[in-house]
Amino acid sequence: MKSKTFVKRSLLFLLIAIVAIIPLVNQDEPLFIQASDERTEMAFSGDMSIAEKMEVILENNRLDGGITGVTVRHAATGEILFAENGDIRLHPASNMKLLTAAAALETLGADYRFRTEVLTDGRQRGEVLLGNLYLKGKGDPTLLKADLDQFAKDLKAQGIRNIKGRLIADDTWYDDVRLSQDLNWSDEPFYTGAQVSALTLSPNEDYDAGTVIVEVTPAKKAEGKALVNVSPETDYVKIVNRTKMVPAGETKKISIEREHGSNRIIVEGDMPVGGTLSRSWASVWEPAGYALSVFRKALEEQGIKFVGRSEEAFESAPEHAQVLVSKDSMPLSELLIPFMKLSNNGHGEVLTKEMGKVVHSEGSWDKGLEVIEDVVMELGVNQDTILLRDGSGMSHKNLIPSNDLTQLLFEAQNKDWFPAFQQSLPVAGVTERLVGGTLRNRMTTEPAKGNVTAKTGSITGVSTLSGYVTSLDGEELIFSILINNYLGSSGNIQAIENEIATMLAGHEFQE
């Protein structure tokens, strides 16, 4: 029996070596990932254990020089079926969101909603509001221009036509620290590093709070500049259009980036006649001012005017201020869908601050991270083995072992909020964006397709995948793959993650 197993494994290593030297046109293409899935299916037929199969996969030379932590547990018993560097602290990237989501569900509850209010410290006399108008945010990352438009319509319906006072943004629900402590300055102009404020605005229903969408389209002639549009329409940001129209057929090369420390968005590069749309989400500097600017425009569109001194300001609404209109967000269970499926960094940081506000009356990263740490300890994570620095996973200082991540996923199954948690995870190979999420273009064939539900993670040199899968014979498994310090293509590393998850999906346990 041993000699047969040895021969099998020798042949497998030879097959892998041959595949590894076959030249690939583009190792980032889905073709390579699919080939890996097929190779796994061919290689791992027979009586090999999970550990033996995993040993073959982890021999991949693309992992050389890095550190890979992998843990597989039985979902019913919690028994560790395989662990490689399972007790080594590694960077989780966006797998950190698993901790944040679990803590938010445990602390805030699946039905928790964020509120936004419009208040006044004055009184209404006829069509005139004598006093200041406050737009108070309490963390809602799903606030849209349409909501501000509705606020303006509601105020008009109350008979308000003129306001003799100031328009004021109140973002004091959280502290005034806008960026998490380890966020790279080079990430800050983009939606992945948007500033966190209790009063903020999203440009569309992806809910990337604190950003605007910038679109560049071609003009009709190969002269002058391309056309640039900002959504929602606002003069809070200033577009600096340095583009150049070029003849049809020439290469399109457009960049869109906000200057650090300002709201000047620089758009530059070549746009050919008949070229395709270029779109980018740019973060804004000080989101509360952005929300207030769009709200003022909404008021103007409803014919509501400010009389006399009408400059905008930023301060807390007084305690005696009266709420004129308000809006509650979708419940947390629904917010988890764009948060986890699309790996929305801003949602992770807002939830962190909100937990700090609710539990410790302080909407800060420090207090929010205290809450996350307390909750995950109750879910079996060892406090002495982790370091938590933000709620999204953008930090390169977050640390957690794969053993602990799988322990959290095991304990989460016993919580009444688990169905909402599980539903929020991306589903492999399902093309519908808010189902497949960041796994919609990965593992697109059976047995992994529609079976692997897991959170992805990716920052420079880090790729991760942790979640749930059912084996071919119906055994439910939990896994965590944390790959750190790799060089080269992220597609190649993700192919290894896919290979592991696909192997687990196709595994049959021997009687």
CATH architecture label of the largest domain: 3-Layer(aba) Sandwich
| Helical content band | 25-40%
Briefly, what CATH class of the largest domain? Alpha Beta
CATH topology of the largest domain: Beta-lactamase
3D shape: globular
Keywords:
Beta-lactamase; globular; D-tyrosyl-trna(Tyr) Deacylase, Chain: A; 511 residues; hydrolase; 5-stranded antiparallel beta sheet; alpha/beta; single chain; 3 domains; D-alanyl-D-alanine carboxypeptidase/D-alanyl-D-alanine-endopeptidase
Condensed summary:
Helix content is 31%, strand content 23%.
Report on this structure.
The chain has 511 residues and is an alpha/beta fold. The chain folds into 3 domains: 50-111 and 332-506, Beta-lactamase, CATH 3.40.710.10; 115-177 and 287-328, 3-Layer(bba) Sandwich (D-tyrosyl-trna(Tyr) Deacylase, Chain: A); 211-283, no CATH class. 31% of the residues lie in helices and 23% in strands. The protein contains 13 helices and 20 strands. It has helices spanning 2-21, 30-43, 50-57, 96-107, 145-157, 287-301, 332-341, 345-360, 365-378, 402-412, 418-423, 433-436, 490-505, and strands spanning 67-74, 80-84, 115-120, 123-125, 128-130, 133-137, 162-164, 167-170, 211-217, 227-231, 238-246, 253-258, 264-272, 278-283, 305-306, 312-314, 322-328, 453-459, 462-470, 476-484. It has a 5-stranded antiparallel β-sheet with strand order 2-1-20-19-18, sandwiched between helices. Helix 4 (96-107) packs parallel to helix 8 (345-360). Residues 1-40 have low confidence and may be disordered.
